[in-house]
Amino acid sequence: MKLLAFNASPRKTKSATEIIMNRFIDGAKQAGADIERHYVEDLLINGCTGCFNCWLKTPGDCVRRDDMDWIIPKMVDSDIVYLGTPIYYYNIVHGLQRMRERLLPMNLPKMLITEGETHHPERYKKTPHTVLAAVCGFPDLVNFRQAEGLFPDATHIFLPAAHTLFHEEGRQYLADFLDAVWDAGYQLSMGNKLVEEHKHRLVVEYPDEVKRRIVEEYNRHFAKV
Q: How far apart are the C-alpha atoms of 54 and 105, rounded to whole Å?
């Protein structure tokens, strides 16, 4: 199995996004996956201009020259594409959004209606399975709605109040979540599908009491600023 992983956090190795990605990759390594990882902040990815030349002039190839020249072929060649992102102001970060926009050449211009929804068919017969791992500061899952809508068919790993990962008590509380992330990397790299119970463990939902504690500690921290 080939795993192509991207960390889109501007904080790169110092981010909660990195902690979760490392956990997933550790599981994939155990399964013998061929792993390649990149930091989106280190890449040159221009935004889509909406020219449609990737459909009309150079089918399947964007006319803009940057790191997407090699990213799309590597995605097509991969079995799993892992996308890690923090949620900034209720959305995925700018680098990942630019990358997503530039994936249009992977689709054909034809429109199809499937189950009442219109979409463009995929250009390639082989498409990788996407894993979207997102973290945010608020302790509520509602903050991932936009990201989930952008990648509806992905395996979702959602961790609200991700700053808890930087504290021992928080890591202990999230031990089952971190184990589930490791196992997801392993199972998907082995070519297995995740059962619903496993998918549920990849999405952290705090009870109200824990939410209140998180908010109180957060407010105490920023009261010092």
A: 5
Give 124's contacts (C-beta < 8 A, 6+ positions apart).
Answer: 76, 106
In the predicted model, is pLDDT for residue 225 greater than 70?
no
Is the torsion defined by CA of 92, 27, 125, 152 positive or negative? negative
Q: pLDDT by residue (tens digit) across 168-194?
A: 999 999 999 999 999 999 999 999 999
Q: How far is CA 139 from CA 12, 28, 88, 202, in A?
A: 22, 28, 14, 15
Q: Where are the domains of the chain?
A: 2-223
Q: Where are the alpha helices (DSSP H) in 39-174?
A: 53-56, 68-77, 94-101, 145-150, 168-173
User: Does 2-223 carry CATH code 3.40.50.300?
Assistant: no
14-29 average pLDDT score: 98
User: Which amino acid is residue 202, in one-letter code?
Assistant: L
